[in-house]
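Sample intake sheet
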Amino acid sequence: MNTSVQTEKATTPTPANPSQGLASGAEILIRSLEAEGVEIIFGHPGGAIIGIYDEMHRLNPSFEHVLVRHEQGGTHAAEGYAKATGKVGTVLVTSGPGATNCVTGIADAYMDSIPMVVFTGQVPTHLIGNDAFQECDTIGVTRSITKHSFLVRDVKDLAETVKKAYYIARTGRPGPVVVDLPKDILAARAPFHYPSSVRIRGYNPVGRGNTEQVQKAATMMAEAERPLFYVGGGTIISDGAERLTALAQKTGIPVTTTLHGLGSFPENDPLSVGMLGMHGTWYANMAVQNTDLLIAVGARFDDRVTGKIEAWAPHARIIHIDIDPACISKNVPVDCPILGDVSKVLEQLEPLVQPGDYSAWRSQIDAWKKECPMDFERDGKLRPQEIIQALREKTGGQAVVVTDVGQNQMWGAQFYSYVHPRSHITSGGLGTMGFSLPAAMGAAFGLRGMDRDVISINGDGGVMMNIQELGVAAAHKLPLKVVILNNNYLGMVRQWQELFHEERYSHTNLEPTNPDFVRLAEACGCVGLRCDSPEDIASTLEAAWEVTDRPVVMEFSVVNEEKVFPMVPAGAATDNMITAQFNPEACA
């Protein structure tokens, strides 16, 4: 997605502080962020950007700066903020290791189309390429994982560059933008003018879809007997969830969603078929394998959805609505591509469609739901699925749930039941362990004052990868609810070792190195709670929700060997699911 573009000068620049005369590059950056409407920056100071922090102290800017304890945590916090609010996340770090520590978060945002601008310090321009102290070719390192990147070489270009960075990050298919700031540029002086708009030659994000293609899609929908909406995260990113819901309810067409699409269509609606793919519902995957028209909306047909691609949706014609031309027919050839903003295309499509008679098709899906419902063993042991369901009951399904990666992620997706967009946040494309805690912190910052619970769901493996941000959340009195499903294993890897590697549990046992999570939470200024029995789930949650002035860490000692089902084995077709204890015939 990296776009090497030539730019045209901004039109009608507006002087923001004409009385100040010349300003340093550091001040220009701060004033630009204020003019852009930035609310919060997740950052960590260092030598190359010390001038920015000095000006921050002097100017007392309108935005809030949150000092994170690790730059990766800062990028994930910015992701969580962006996903929860729909706004662009902002990160500020120093050169060298400050920048390289951001690489994972930048790659995560790139894979999941999250708008984010990362400002990185750089050595002075005359030292670039000399292996100076804390020098790194940040542009080169991040080129393949950014939507665009800038190295500012003239202080007079800085304000316009900031404007372009935010414009590129939020428009089209969103993504991360890196702005590299040499130390001498931050010290140089120039007049400050922040442009009211920018034009970037060669970058023209699409809006409405082609009228003929939209009409063709409506005709295909009218002709179908077993249509199915396949909805991805692009629907939420475009603020198209409400239109998608209205379209599905008008036509009567069932809806399945991806991991990132959760919340784009209410899962308590009878038309919902739940999540599809590797750990999706059996009935969603059966619907995909039997549909005659798949309507893909803001989804990219990734391998976790399709499984064995040549055997996927074998009877279906395919409509694909997406804003990114690179995604259309990339993995699966489609019959009706519609390039455009999802929300705008759905608006075009709605008046062209009518209710259909899909009663037989919906009856078949209902039968599949009864044959193989989402369930788990209830034997008096503490199982993670029961904890997720209890969280839903406690919050009425109204919380923002931020999951980590691994088994906890799938249980969170399968058993919470999402009814609102931007209520489910996770790392999808990159699959980054350690994502949940800092991302939940970022979401909590973005949602302050909105009376929304933010829950961070983690495994004991992933939570340790960015546990340092607990202290930051505590210092800011964020009422985060942090759930640790502790099975003393790298659970998903252990599951694969059990099912496919003859129970060779190689380096997945975490018990020897796991800390006492309750005492660790208390050491970070949080409340720590422990639950060892299903009878104590409700009281543990009750105690946690009584705390409103700091994070609460709840450690649940769950069954060590619990596995995530259903499951499509790697390389298998999605109708060849393992549904319980390695029994592929359980729901046949």
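Comment: Residues 71-85 form the longest helix (15 residues). Confidence is low (pLDDT under 50) at residues 1-19.
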